[in-house]
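Meet today's protein:

…
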Amino acid sequence: MEITNINVRKICSNDKMKAVCSVTFDDALVIHDIKIIESDSKTFVAMPSRKNKNGQYSDVAHPINSELRTKLEKAIIDEYQKALESMTE
């Protein structure tokens, strides 16, 4: 499964949540509302989630193994950085 498109849809500068994006796989499957979060120590990706009856959040979609998670996170953060650079040019 290959990432064929990453669309950074919204960039927020005042919050810990820095952006929201959609990722397309094999030009056949898209996952929306992936969040790019900046903590004090790093920037990371949070998969789309929903609040359950107990008030806890659970991911709607997520990578099953660490290899895909790492590949996905790197690709998303790289695309986010490109979007930031194009805003400052």
